[in-house]
From TrEMBL:
Keyword annotations: Amino-acid biosynthesis, Aromatic amino acid biosynthesis, NADP, Oxidoreductase
Domain Shikimate dehydrogenase substrate binding N-terminal: 8-90
UniProt: shikimate binding residues: S16, L17, S18, T63, N88, D104, Y219, Q248
Active-site positions on this chain: K67 (proton acceptor)
Record Pfam families: SDH_C, Shikimate_DH, Shikimate_dh_N
Name of the protein in its database record: Shikimate dehydrogenase (NADP(+))
InterPro entries associated with the record: Aminoacid_DH-like_N_sf (IPR046346), NAD(P)-bd_dom_sf (IPR036291), SDH_C (IPR041121), Shikimate_DH (IPR011342), Shikimate_DH-bd_N (IPR013708), Shikimate_DH_fam (IPR022893), Shikm_DH/Glu-tRNA_Rdtase (IPR006151)
Top-level taxonomic group: Bacteria
Chain's role: Involved in the biosynthesis of the chorismate, which leads to the biosynthesis of aromatic amino acids. Catalyzes the reversible NADPH linked reduction of 3-dehydroshikimate (DHSA) to yield shikimate (SA).
Length: 274
């Protein structure tokens, strides 16, 4: 019988780890599936998604630059997707309709609280960035019980828009990137693409305390620049986004297959290479 079809859409997408991650989960659970990469330029994305599901596709992950477009294609949205206005997981509904979900926030929190055993409750967190991933992480941090969330972004208006959308001024506020002198954080999360696009983390080193954790959504070479800043600032705990990548995939996998895979073997195997 033909394998059940899954895919990840992106542009570019060739180096995506998602086929390997979903393939490993499936092998672990004895599930037979195919999981392909589909490179779609922005103008072709909607048609490519429709074709995939019309041909019997059972689930699609979506990555840069299509997460907002994926959200717009769906007629039903989970709360996690609706809050962010972006989706990384599409599931077919009856009648050719699509359901949109977003597992970036849940994957981030699961990695940090379960893999790295960090209890976020009562933390003062600083979030760098206000793009799609930052939005998901902001909501997830507040759900996980941080005491305060401070958002800074190169384009300050986008940080303000995110804080306004969250609408919890007692806990969540913005600062200017160069307005952090005198502040201290338990957790500093890099959700910018500085590690990919280039740029510097000119933040006061005094924002870190001895116990503070620095977390970069990026992994591999792209995590080098934030790690460089964190190391220079004396951070004792640095985590990269490889665990988040595996956990967001596991949350999508669970939605499609109804079973949660053990993420540790996949994470450990990838860790050897990144
Ligand atoms: P977006 O393009 O939506 O957002 C990019 C963010 O980075 C914006 O806040 C932007 O600021 C900021 N930025 C970009 N360049 C610079 C610069 N030179 N100086 C300062 N700020 C800059 O990207 P995403 O939110 O989708 O992704 C962000 C990062 O997170 C990516 O590197 C991605 O790979 C990673 N990621 C990792 C995941 C994982 O599972 N590990 C999941 C999702 C994302 P501005 O608003 O001013 O443009």
């Amino acid at each position: 019988a033909e394998a059940h079809r899954y895919a990840v859409f992106g542009h570019p997408i060739a180096h995506s780890l998602s086929p390997e991650i979903h393939g490993s989960f499936a092998a672990q659970l004895g599930i037979h599936l195919s999981y392909e990469t589909i490179d779609a330029a922005p103008g072709d994305f909607a048609a490519a998604v429709r074709r995939f599901f019309a041909d019997g596709g059972l689930g699609a992950n979506v990555t840069l630059p299509h997460k907002e477009a994926a959200f717009a294609l769906a007629s039903e949205h989970s709360e996690a997707a609706a809050r962010v206005g972006a989706a990384n997981t599409l599931t077919p509904l009856v009648g050719g309709k699509l359901h949109a979900h977003n597992t970036d926030g849940s994957g981030f929190v699961r990695d940090i609280t379960e893999r790295h055993s960090l209890d976020l409750r009562g933390h003062d967190a600083l979030l760098l960035g206000a793009g799609g991933a930052a939005k998901a992480v902001a909501w997830a941090l507040l759900d996980a019980g941080v005491q305060t969330l401070t958002i800074v972004n190169r384009t300050p208006e986008r940080a303000d828009q995110l804080a306004d959308a969250i609408g919890d001024p007692a806990r969540c506020h913005t600062r200017y990137w160069d307005g952090l002198d005198g502040e201290c954080f338990d957790l500093v999360v890099n959700a910018t693409s500085i590690g990919v696009t280039g740029g510097s983390f000119d933040l006061p080193m005094s924002i870190l305390q001895d116990h503070s954790t620095c977390y970069d959504l990026c992994y591999g070479a792209a995590a080098a620049s934030f790690k460089g800043w964190a190391t220079a600032a004396g951070a004792r705990y640095f985590r990269d986004g490889l665990g988040m990548l595996v956990e967001q995939a596991a949350d999508a996998f669970e939605r499609w297959h109804g079973t949660r895979p053990d993420t540790d073997p996949v994470y450990n195997a990838l860790r050897q290479r990144f």
